[in-house]
Specification:
Radius of gyration: 35 Å
Shape: flat
Distance between the termini: 107 Å
Largest sheet: none
Structural class: mainly alpha
Oligomer: single chain
Number of domains: 2
Strand content: under 5%
Number of helices: 10
């Protein structure tokens, strides 16, 4: 039987080894060159690098010092100041007698103590100042100073389940009282969507529905009232909602 000898396999393997070694050498040479260039760049720019690192360290230390020695005490002072006008505000909310005077004291302060307006200005950026914006906005709304109410309430922000929606809804009330129902409708809808719950959502949807009816947006009002009925059936607003659904339906057909 004829047999065939395999020739050239060792030579090919040897050639492959040479090529692999050559490729590996090239890779290491490239890495050496890259490392060398990096070292040269670092050496050349070490002064700038050290200055940059020092600046970062100084910034971090400065920020930590600010939080400890400036921001922290400022927050504490602002919270202490807020207690004085807040007491007048709570009295005004719970009492109908001399309520306007109490709201005015809460806004402007008395006996050398800050009111909400001063706290919002002097302690800007603190949590207490943010709350002062809310209280000032509600106080101005109660005093029928609608422009000021809108300005302060728009400066207030909160992730709270109720405070955020109530602030937005109060802006809607202010616009409604100055006969700007289009703006009122927008804020009522925004307030209803801000935090989905069984209190603020149906409350401001109900206001939005009635405002839509006032504007002649009857189909929109019908959709809003149906949303209250379907999504918030246990809410106070849902108790007589069929009356408003029928009203909006009738208005839509005529």
């Amino acid at each position: 039987m004829a047999t065939y000898k395999k020739t050239g396999s060792k030579a090919k393997k040897s050639q492959d080894n040479i090529e692999e070694k050559s490729t590996t050498a090239e890779v290491f040479n490239t890495l050496d060159e890259t490392a060398s260039k990096s070292e040269q760049w670092v050496i050349k720019n070490q002064k700038i690098i050290l200055i940059s690192l020092a600046a970062i360290v100084v910034f971090i230390l400065g920020y930590l010092a600010y939080l400890k020695y400036v921001d922290g005490p400022k927050e504490k002072d602002a919270a202490n100041e807020l207690a004085f006008p807040k007491a007048y505000f709570e009295d005004a909310i719970s009492n109908t007698v001399a309520a306007d005077s109490l709201f005015t004291l809460a806004l402007n302060g008395a006996d050398g103590k800050f009111g909400f307006v001063d706290i919002a200005k002097e302690y800007s950026g603190t949590k207490a100042a943010n709350l002062a914006n809310y209280y000032a906005g509600i106080s101005y709304l109660k005093l029928k100073n609608y422009k000021e109410a809108i300005d302060y309430l728009e400066d207030f922000s909160s992730d709270d389940e109720l405070l955020g929606p109530i602030a937005k809804g109060a802006i809607g009330d202010a616009f409604a009282d100055i006969n700007q129902p289009e703006d009122a409708l927008d804020y009522y809808l925004e307030a209803a969507k801000l935090k989905d719950n069984n209190f603020s959502s149906p409350l401001f949807l109900f206001k939005a529905g009635n405002t839509a009816l006032e504007l002649g947006k009857n189909s929109k009002a019908l959709d809003i009232f149906n949303t209250i009925k379907n999504d918030y059936p246990l809410s106070d607003e849902a108790k007589d909602i069929n009356i408003y659904i029928n009203k909006a339906t009738f208005a839509s057909e005529n």
